[in-house]
Amino acid sequence: MSSDLAVPGTVRLIDAAGVLHAAHGSGQKEIVLVPQPTDNPNDPLRWSKARKVTAITIAMVWCFFIGAMISGLSPAYNLIEEDTGISVADLSTGNGLMYLFMGWGAVVTQRIALDYGRRVTLVASAILVTAMTIWTAFVGSKGEFFANRVLLGTFTSPQETLMELIVGDLYFTHERGSYLSLYAWSLFAGAFLSPVAAGYVADELGWRWIQYILTIIGVGLTLPMGSRKKSRICRSPHDIEERGPQKGNVYKSRETPEKESPPSIQAAPFPEAETSRTFAERLKLWGCRHPAQPSSFKAIILPFKLLSFPAVFVSGLLVGGILSWYNVLGGSLALVLGNPPYNFSADSVGLTYLASLVGVSIGCLISGWPSDKLVVFLARRNGGVMEPEQRLWICSLALLIHPAGCLLYGVGASYHVHWFAVVFGQGLICVTLPMGSTLAYTYVMDSYGEMAGDGIVSTILVRNTMGFAFGYAVVRMIDALTLRYALAGHEDLSAAQRESLDSDPRPSSEQVSIRNVVADTGTVQDPSFLARVPDPHHRAQPPVQHATPETSNLDSHDGVLPHEHDHLDLSTQLLDDSFDFDTCLRDFTGFLDGVGLPIEWSPFQEDLHTALTGPEENLQQGVSTRAGTPFGSWLPSAPTGNGLANVVYEKATHRIAPEKRPFQVTEEQRSMLKDSIRCFSHLLDPSFRLPSRHALTRYITSFFDGFHPHMPFIHLPTWQILDHPTDLVFGIAAVGAQYCFEKKVSEQLFYAGKALLMNSLRARHDKLSSSTRPSTALAQSRIDGNVADCHGKNTPTIEKVQALIVLMAFATWEPQDTLVQESFVLQGILAHVAREVGLTEESSIPSQPPTLHNGDRHSAHDREWRQWAADESTRRTKLIAFTFLHTHSIAYNVYPVLRSNEVNLRLPCSTKEWNAPDAALWHGFRCETPKPQLLFQEALSLLLRNRDDASPLEPIPTPLGNYVLLHGLLQRIHILRDLSVPIISKTAALPIEEIKKLEHGLRSWTSGWQQAPESSLDPNNENGPIPFTSSALLALAYVRIHLHLGPYRSLESRDPEVIARSLSQCPEVSRSDDISTALLYAVHMLGIPVRLGVDRVARSQAFFWSVRHSIASLDCAVLLSKWLIRVSTTVGQVALSESEERILHWVRCIVEEAYATVDFDTPWTDANDVHAPRSLSLGVLQIWTHFFLSNRQWPFINIIGQGLKKYSDMLR
Questions:
Q1: Element (H, E) at 386
Q2: In 3-state terms, what secondary structure has residue 1193?
Q3: What would the pLDDT profile of 982-1008 be if each residue is shown by its tens digit?
Q4: Same domain for 68 and 197?
Q5: Are 683 and 601 part of one and the same domain?
Q6: Domain Xylanolytic transcriptional activator regulatory: where (predicted)?
């Protein structure tokens, strides 16, 4: 070529006059073929169209399924976390490692491909990727997963760099854009389509089957890759030099062009003529390396030297931004759509990838064929000369499309816009993904054709290093900045990257000089090239600092009161505008191990430590840090099964997969329910109408979301509505309707369910009392085996106990006194039926697994799981019946109708076993369980006999097991109170020996709570709210040891006046160090709603904040108020002790915070006078009153607030 075309990448593409001695296209005669085909019959540029299509199709299919193999697990991250304990953040980090090694592994694999052939590299990659895919199904730890991802990334690296070379081998410059866009489509389509199918596979078969299916596909890919023919010929430097003069003479004019037309394809001579290879020779996996090629050791460093070329580096930044956005979508999609307000299931999240596919397809159409047409058009306008920069005009479209997609996806989701807008934004973002990658790769190949293989590797190095960084940081970035600001900041970076290439697409002198660096360096085949490439510029890199999550320190218990000089001014901290709310919540999360529950705390110790210090000093104790959780900044208004899709605990935590919940009620199921009650119409209210299927779906969903997490006795993975009697279904629907604020329907369902249940129990009683014939009424009522409500078994089924629990729970917390009386009737029946079904392991009647429908058949493994689920559900039902009966005794001060010495069942299993969605996962969790749980009586006895305050229980009970044991301890306090005090006096204290034994038992229980892997004080804990509720009952236990408030509440009256009068008559509280522990818990119970926001919690947290919390809070409020009054009347005679000063100071800080933030109608005390203990007493009562009156879920809690308000009026 002439000197003006000596810059690499600048080529004469259009020969309109037909004067060049070069091969031209057969379709468009004016287009010069670049690169020029040789006369070698094996040159892939000379292959027929059909042979080229076959070769490129095999390569693209391989690329498509490799993309599927590395992306198929995306919608199943939550299931993997439940199964293996590997957190979503760690899974995202593993993917980042995979992308990192996809880039760095290409340094080796691309060199193998360039030296020894494309096909051997692709075949080896297919085999090794398949092996890594099947290994993924068996990973069990974070380290193993990381190792798998590192190897998988290395072995899939040819997908990143080799496809571009294959396109360059087969097609000319003016055709590459179209086929590179096809490559980009196969790359992204495999990545986006596989999650769609994988979501359904995970739901139906479990997440491991995703890997099994992909392994089968991988095996099927290996054979066609082995049969793919070579697409590369080996060119020696000597060959190129001989053709050089001819290339330099392409502008030679012809004297008589009209007499001599150029050939359609004029091949450059190839000095060592080759004959066509046989079919067997074409299939060889070796024999492509040319002796003149440089050594692999020297050539392997070439991609690193090419990073000094700005065009290569900037192209890497562009495709790096593309990969980072792909990681943002993959890391945030489940977080955005799987949580409130969208609550998409795994398969629904997978379906949203169809929008990504549509976007990618549009982007490929824009960046492929149109870019080829564009460079031809611009080359004509440029005198027939094509510049690589001419393709970059297409990037201008991305500057408009990408920000719009970001606004819809990120900012729209943060404002909870309709899900379609979020998914549409996702599609717009994906439009720009292939545009950036296709144009960047084509730019490098057009600019540095001789070094395209190594230039692509350099680009991928930059790209995948950025991808690793974003894959590692995306979840943490969203957690720290929120989705809105994280995506906005990322878009600013991406815009800067795009503008670096798109600001001036014209080939300026600077851009020409960027590519001209290669002009004098020879070709990649010349061994001396390596020595002539300029060294990259050395830039000092700042050290990378990785933020590490706070870890819990369960072995450190510094929870003792501080000295005066160590004291942190909480009032300043709480009232300062810059106060760290997240820090406050982390302090709350670490309560049991920090402020609230110092095991070795003693008011008698001289060196009182940090029990009441600020949050910062207690953060490291017992905190379960969760990456990606919204708990640090907001609390959702309604719970869902994957309310928190992307949660990470220091301990292995598991949550139930909401997509496995069979809550949808069909019209057919409703019809069967309606048929099942037709024969009982005489028992039901004439106005009763069965709710619609939509209403039933709503009620049942609300029950399992709101009520059932507090009493998990139904096995959700195997639960189906038709498997259970109608009285239980109606009871569930009644409670669910209450959670939906549909009071009228809830009462109708309650009375209907109760009528059916009582009829069933009467029919059984009639049959037992009849000695001559079976009950005819029973025979008439048995209409359907699936939903038949009346059956003639001599022993009541466990489902009758379950129905009694939910019906009694509904009646217990309703405001009408008539329903309260119903609860007392159901209380006695529940205790009687529970004894009949057996309360010991030996006496328990074996449970039957649920009846199967629609011809279901299950393997022996599955039947074992279902039998275990039925047995465990039976055990949990009995234990929860015991705890709820005792809760009834606590609320209404009635003697326990079911005592702890009657119950000797094994404690419940772990949450991960209980929530395992299929038999395979359950079996895996069972294998991890070293030994069965202790019997209830054995564990309770060990707690009461223990004297060193460490947990004597082995194995450590699960959260539900700890909850049951705590009720056993509370019941002992209740019974001791009733038996120890004189009949005429209810103020006597418990014996000192009993107090010591109970406090030792409570400390031992607390130690076990801390050691339980699934315990957390987070109300949104994936394992349910039971650990959180247990903390409230623990506070109640300490309060009940020192203040016998039971007889002085009269909650069963449902009359605020009666409640207030009863509270005014309760005994006084003495000032002593013995009561300090109870006061600590009472103060912390007050601090929780104040720090979280009193109105916020009261109005939106009914699902997590159980009624039992309010019952415990009432006792804590009265104890703290009476102690403050006692201090105000005796402080003149007895000075405050150091522990009393600390507790008083903390109360003052909390009350000041509440008065500064809560909208009280009329403050009960002057804010300037809150330092006075009596004023603090009124402030404490006002906070709790406001909290109870603001509750929107259970009117019973409002009645407690009204009674507390009237009690406060009496004090004022």
A1: strand 385-386
A2: coil
A3: 544 455 577 888 888 888 889 889 888
A4: yes
A5: no
A6: 700-974
